[in-house]
Amino acid sequence: MKAAIILFPGINRERDMALALARVTGRKPQMLWHRDTALPAGLDLVVLPGGFSYGDYLRCGAMAAQSPIMQAVKAHAARGGHVLGVCNGFQMLTEAGLLPGALLRNASLRFLSMDCQMKVERADTAFTNRFQRGQVFRATMAHGDGNYFADDATLDRLEGEGLVALRYATPQGEVTAAANRNGSARSIAGVLSPNLRVLGLMPHPENQVDPLIDGTDGLPLFESLAENFAAA
Amino acid sequence: MTDTPALLDPARAKQLAAEFGLKPDEYDRVLAILGRTPSLTELGVFSVMWSEHCSYKSSRVWLRELPTKAPWVIQGPGENAGVIDIGEGLAAIFKMESHNHPSFIEPYQGAATGVGGILRDVFTMGARPIANLNALRFGTPDAPRMKRVIDGVVRGIGGYGNCVGVPTVGGEVNFHPAYNGNPLVNAMTVGIAPADRIFLSAAAGVGNPVVYVGSKTGRDGIHGATMASAEFSADSEEKRPTVQIGDPFAEKLLIEACLELMATDAIVAIQDMGAAGLTSSSVEMAGKGGVGIELVLDDVPQRETGMSAYEMMLSESQERMLMVLKPGREAVAEAIFTKWELDFAVIGHITDTGRITIRHKGALEADIPLAPLESEAPLYRRPTAETPKLPVLDAASVADPLGPEAALLKLVGSLDLCSRRWIWDQYDSMVGGQTAKRPGAADAAVVRIEDHSRALAMTTDCTPRYCLADPEAGGAQAVAEAWRNLTAVGAKPLAITDNMNFGNPEKPEIMGQFASAVRGMAAACTALDFPVVSGNVSLYNETEGRAILPTPAIGGVGVLEDVAQAVGLALAPGLDLVLIGETRGWLGQSLWLREIAGQEAGAPPPVDLAAERRNGDFVRGRILAGTVKACHDLSDGGLLVALAEMAMAGDTGATLLPPPAALPAHAHWFGEDQARYLLAVTDGAALLAEAAAAGVPATRIGRSGGEALVLAGGPSISVARLQEAHERTLPALMADG
């Protein structure tokens, strides 16, 4: 798998993401600068990492979505390329129009740093096929603005077309209000594009890839990608 | 250009000197050094450099007593932070620093800029910061403004640390009415650098460019160091303009840009602009290098128009660094800072005059000889008065009003022992992907070093109520507890940073607390091979004449060769519980005595440093041998609280053997004797035999399993009830609206 992570000023989980990708591919991903205007040829996966691009001083992800390289990322997605956006990266994807909806301030109005559990709604994508449908896995969440919002028509369409990838749930897989700490609409934690090749999610599966650090609950996501692009 | 700056009128100068916090005899020294009346800028430079905050004039004579050397110490006190060798060619760089006064005036920004300042102290030496910790002391939540202070401080620490992407992995919090008018916010940063690539602050090379990088200079924080060197009064709210505003986004860019430049060979010396901003950084860099420095302030990046030389020299605007570059490397450096969208300006050069000269708009604004600014700086051996020794409290003389069950439930829900989850849920503890033991998982935080198996263990500790009762014993206890917490995860304790928070040093009883605490700390550091490599002193922590509890907060750092060796405190079923160390039932100054019996009385528990060493070395040996499944040191609340904390963390109960008949039961369960650990092991008999062979007191106290703590012949206390009592306190207190 040829993967690249895009560096925006203020992002801070690029190293975590690089470690997760290196763990499944055996090599470090390329790091690209936000002022670049083209992606290297033959990339399988573009990753928009977590952090506080431009300090989140405007809407989260809004400035980064206007970066020069985002035109190339949009072209990559339009060609059917895969894009993963995590946390601030998810916010960038919604701001760039690559995914619908928006991420609002957490319902509690506080930054939330804790474990959450996510239920896998689709296990037939390049991001999730090493999970079972309905499987629940644990991940770190660390965000102030992770409250997914879209209008009802959009939410109905996402659910109708099967584009909800992940939902907050209890460890037993029940989708409850208590398990939905940031208040996301319909407990949505992760959203897919119609071609299933762009995934945005708020929690950080890249922090659960090492048994010596915090377990390997997030590893199947990266193994799915590596397996999907094994030939490449 | 003229040869002399525009001087103040002598009478006006004398009046201003007093307003700036200079004592009359200190101002006389200024006149003697200059041989004339100062200019406004010169008076500003002297007053901040000679403030308690920058000069340590009351504390330095005592701090010299602290041991600062060990074979693994690369850099002790005197630089921006301390540096120790942690093996494999790596160095750990760390320091703790207070931001007490600003955090009371403006809690969010005070705490946030405290985190920003300590981060800069660490990355200015070449380290990538890998962890933040803190030590917080608040008043009682019903005190005026206190909930707003608690909320603002926690949000500020999170707001800054989360954004810069350095995990906040540990800390401690106490509540006591003595902090009602003067909370403490001590922030600690730990970073990692190659041991042979440490950057220092001594300027060198006549003609070398002096370079300013980072954010622009504004009028914020002018005279912040002076404010931090005075007692509080009712008008402290009016001092809000002296508090700085933090920009963690700029700090993140500054970290990346500085580390990128440090990978080249362009830098001669570098220092952050912290307290007293451009003044202290330029004076200290030139002073340490034994050179002179000339600054041209017209070239300082400015956020506001019409700033005077005085304002620019005294501003404490955040996220700024001062560097001396090798000749001809300006372009390399500028390209890096431009890439990161930060200001870069050459604002002067190094001279051979031994003086600092400051020019602005063609005029000379200041011309001060550097050597006497340091050598003639005031240094006080202030009078001390010893704290009277308190009598030892006889445990048998204190009746137990509640019994163990009610006492335990009350204690685990009390302010000083309740769950800190409400706080740490607002701090990103995982960013970086290396946090192996996060808050609540172990006695110390454990963070692995990227691309290595090696990990650092880190903790902050102090028990201020012990320090008030007996500052010497309390000072020793703070160091011993930090050493114990590192030991309890399996780490080898290496060194500490200290943050000395005390009241007004001009009062003999306060200066006596300070001197005694240092004496106790020094004894513990020596006995435990645990030297001090950096630190910070915060005095005048008083409001309306009432001092805080003496609070020498200790930040300890240790190393584990392999992160897989680290143990946590969560109990699992089917294990023998073995208590290491001697239990005498010491109730004086215990939390049980305060919370259950309603007394703050008696001498605090004595610290037997030989026993600390022997017991701790034994425990660490067993952990590294792989036979210990969980470990927790005994501190606040004693044995039963420690066991309850292990049970709650692991959702596992335990069945306990009867307490020894020789002690009152409440003294056995809740006494706070030192040098003790509770271990959970598969083979208790083997551990007891090993302890006996090592001459270490060890007692099997029970076995883990079930859903409750079952006391012999006594109550069965469900873990769920304990958790409920433990978890509800802070959320209920801080409920929004």
TrEMBL record, chain A:
Keywords: ATP-binding, Cytoplasm, Glutamine amidotransferase, Hydrolase, Ligase, Nucleotide-binding, Purine biosynthesis. SUPFAM superfamilies: Class I glutamine amidotransferase-like. Pathway: Purine metabolism; IMP biosynthesis via de novo pathway; 5-amino-1-(5-phospho-D-ribosyl)imidazole from N(2)-formyl-N(1)-(5-phospho-D-ribosyl)glycinamide: step 1/2. The keyword Nucleotide-binding applies. GO terms for cellular component: cytoplasm. GO terms for biological process: 'de novo' IMP biosynthetic process. The keyword Transcription regulation does not apply. The active site is at C87, H204, E206. It holds the Pfam family GATase_5. Its EC number is 6.3.5.3, 3.5.1.2. Gene3D superfamilies: 3.40.50.880. GO terms for molecular function: ATP binding; glutaminase activity; phosphoribosylformylglycinamidine synthase activity. It catalyses: N(2)-formyl-N(1)-(5-phospho-beta-D-ribosyl)glycinamide + L-glutamine + ATP + H2O = 2-formamido-N(1)-(5-O-phospho-beta-D-ribosyl)acetamidine + L-glutamate + ADP + phosphate + H(+); L-glutamine + H2O = L-glutamate + NH4(+). It comes from the Bacteria. It is found in: Cytoplasm. Part of the phosphoribosylformylglycinamidine synthase complex involved in the purines biosynthetic pathway. Catalyzes the ATP-dependent conversion of formylglycinamide ribonucleotide (FGAR) and glutamine to yield formylglycinamidine ribonucleotide (FGAM) and glutamate. The FGAM synthase complex is composed of three subunits. PurQ produces an ammonia molecule by converting glutamine to glutamate. PurL transfers the ammonia molecule to FGAR to form FGAM in an ATP-dependent manner. Part of the FGAM synthase complex composed of 1 PurL, 1 PurQ and 2 PurS subunits. This is Phosphoribosylformylglycinamidine synthase subunit PurQ. It comes from Siccirubricoccus deserti.
TrEMBL record, chain B:
The active site is at H53, H99. Mg(2+) 2 binds at D121, D272. It is found in: Cytoplasm. The keyword Ubl conjugation does not apply. It catalyses: N(2)-formyl-N(1)-(5-phospho-beta-D-ribosyl)glycinamide + L-glutamine + ATP + H2O = 2-formamido-N(1)-(5-O-phospho-beta-D-ribosyl)acetamidine + L-glutamate + ADP + phosphate + H(+). GO terms for molecular function: ATP binding; magnesium ion binding; phosphoribosylformylglycinamidine synthase activity. The keyword Signal does not apply. It comes from Siccirubricoccus deserti. Monomer. Part of the FGAM synthase complex composed of 1 PurL, 1 PurQ and 2 PurS subunits. Its EC number is 6.3.5.3. Pathway: Purine metabolism; IMP biosynthesis via de novo pathway; 5-amino-1-(5-phospho-D-ribosyl)imidazole from N(2)-formyl-N(1)-(5-phospho-D-ribosyl)glycinamide: step 1/2. This is Phosphoribosylformylglycinamidine synthase subunit PurL. The gene is purL. Gene3D superfamilies: PurM-like C-terminal domain, PurM-like, N-terminal domain. Its main location: cytoplasm.
